[in-house]
Amino acid sequence: MIELEMVEGIGPKTKELIEKIGIHSGEELITHYPFRYDILKRSDLTIINDGDRIVIDGLIEGQPTVIYINKSLKKIIFRINTKTNILNVTIYNKAYLYQDLKSGREITVIGKYHKLKNTIVASDIRFGLLPPNAEIEPIYHTTNGLSSKQIGKFALSALNLEYQIDNLVPRYLEEKYNLMSKSEALLNVHLPSSIISLKKARQRIKYEELFMYMLKINYLKDRIVSDSNAITRKIDYTKIDNFIDKLPFKLTLDQERVVKDILKDLEEKKRMNRLLQGDVGSGKTVVAFIAIYANYLSKHQSALMAPTEILARQHYEDALKVFAKYKINIALLTSSTSLKERKEIYKGLESGDINLIIGTVALIQDKVTFKNLGLVVTDEQHRFGVNQRNTFKSKGVTPDVLSMSATPIPRTYALTIYGDTDVSSIKTKPIGRKEVITYFKKEKDITEVLEMMKKELDSKHQIYVVAPMIEEEDSNNKESVKDLEEKMNKAFGKIANIGVIHGKLDSKEKEKIMKEFESNKINILISTTVIEVGVNVPNASMIVIFNANMFGLSTLHQLRGRVGRGNVQSYCILIAPKSYERLKFMETTSDGFKVSEYDFLERGEGDLFGTMQSGDLELKMANIKKDYRMLLKAKEDADEFIGTLLTFSTNPEFEPFFKELSRIENLD
Ligand code: ADP
Ligand code: MG
């Protein structure tokens, strides 16, 4: 590792500043890549427009003057002679430049051109004329007191030091794509010699990142599959078939297929790591229960983890029902479980008395030890980070993991980012379900919405009303829960009971309100997004979402999934101050896979990759979405290379790869 102090020009003070931007070594300095490049090329004054960025060079004409605007604001004005023109230059707050600004001096000015006043408001000036060829200037993220230019200089100095540049693309692939060498690429990223070489340099670095990214995922997968602590089970298909037959409904074909996948995973001697994705209401929970039952039959404990307390409780109640006739001992563990109960539960888990534990993240605290944990199911797994998901591993054997998500990822993306995971999807909903009809309405059409609500209430159905926040936080008139409560009371106070629920209530209160809604004592439930996941009230036939523009599409889709759970036609009404393309899109489909695809293309990878890109799986220059094509190539190449790598693991040429791979060991 190169210590920062070893880099020319970095003293203790500068070091502190550099550390402030998260750089702690010379290597990190080198990979602190510019986030953009400015091209310094003389502007053509004959085509430049008012307000354009301008780059011009020439001689200072006459003596500059300093003007005091007020105590803290000064400006220098002068004129520049470009041989063809004379322009005015204004530069603010850089009075210290004054002493160097001498009449006749060669200077380059960069700034904004105000055509009418023939004036440049300079953002930057440099002494000397522009070089004959266009100059490309890297721009770095930085902090106060440290200029972008300084960072570039330090990066170059670090590159000049003698150190080991690990080449992380095998030679045959460098040749295949005619990639620039790594050292040349690093140099060109910080000091581009031309636009073409900059492009090639970036291509090289991005490819290497993506290749290593896929290689790491492959490596993780390989290690998971070959985990010697993985459990093998005998699956008792007769008993499981019986269990399925006794369910109050017939499984859909997709559910059957997914159950088969899972049972096969459980049976094989490999660690299951399966993502089960399916729209809200597609029936993932029952699939999880079947897996839990199979795991129980093989005499192992199961854990079911949910992101919210409400959801954990719901699962708990469902589980009690489903397993009522079986000897499965089920416990609920959340942050509101009393200390005494908690101790009992810990004991039960340690002794093996408890077969199934359901709970929130509190579950994974260190104190919990299992006798023989065989299966971990996480609901809405995208809410858990990689590290959290893996905490369970340390407890006894390596349990199988089933993750459920209602935010489906388009298949191709899933293959790449969840490359270490098998993916099963439930695409069809249980028969008899009617599609939720979605309407987009502007705020000014609120009376229309109220009429629609009235109709539902008249047919004894219940309604969710969602607001983005609890109280007015600022004055830009977003509807808060408080506002909506008033509004709803005014409109329906006489004919309906109105309840309010939000994240600031304690869990007892929340539970009470949810119970009242479930039993239809509350007809209209106003809430923030606490109801986003898990709530199951089949008699609720309408959800009205105010300021829908403030939510992401996948959240809206989740919310929409709260209705349409029974057999009545259900509606989702999205309300926003003005028209939004993406909200209109929600009217056109109720398919979560389509929503997620649209969201992905519109908004970029967003939170989808949030959990995956933790720690060493981070990409510095490449971008999974923008460089998606390259990613697919890199995946192909990594899939092919991993075999060679593992077979010839003693080949010294492969040492850098193993060094890099070993960095992900601590991801578990
Ligand atoms: P998800 O977790 O995928 O959002 P759930 O598992 O909560 O969906 O299922 C939603 C509702 O559908 C539950 O009430 C469940 O009992 C019911 N359900 C599940 N599978 C079926 C099926 N095959 N036929 C009819 N109803 C089903
Ligand atoms: Mg669910």
Characterise the protein shown here:
A hairpin with a 4-residue loop joins strand 3 (73-81) and strand 4 (86-92). The protein has 21 helices and 20 strands. It is α/β, with parallel strands linked by helices and 668 residues long. The strands form four sheets. Strands 10-11-9-12-13-8-14 form a seven-stranded parallel beta sheet, sandwiched between helices. The protein has four domains: 42-133, OB fold (Dihydrolipoamide Acetyltransferase, E2P), CATH 2.40.50.140; 173-226 and 627-668, no CATH class; 237-426, Rossmann fold (3-Layer(aba) Sandwich), CATH 3.40.50; 437-589, Rossmann fold, CATH 3.40.50.300. It is globular. The protein binds adenosine-5'-diphosphate (ADP) and magnesium ion.
- What is the count of DSSP helices, taking H or I runs of 4+ residues? 21
The major pleated sheet works out as:
7 strands, parallel
Derived structural class: alpha/beta
Structural domain count: 4
Bound molecules: adenosine-5'-diphosphate, magnesium ion
* Span of the ends, CA to CA: 25 Å
Shape: globular
Strand order of the largest sheet: 10-11-9-12-13-8-14
| Total beta-strand segments | 20
Low-confidence stretches: 383-388, 605-616
**CATH architecture label of the largest domain:** 3-Layer(aba) Sandwich
Based on CA atoms alone, the radius of gyration comes out at 31 Å
CATH superfamily of the largest domain: P-loop containing nucleotide triphosphate hydrolases
CATH topology of the largest domain: Rossmann fold
What is the top-level CATH class of the largest domain? Alpha Beta
Determine the fraction of residues in helical runs and give it as a percent range.
25-40%
- Strand percentage: 15-25%
Average pLDDT for all residues: 86
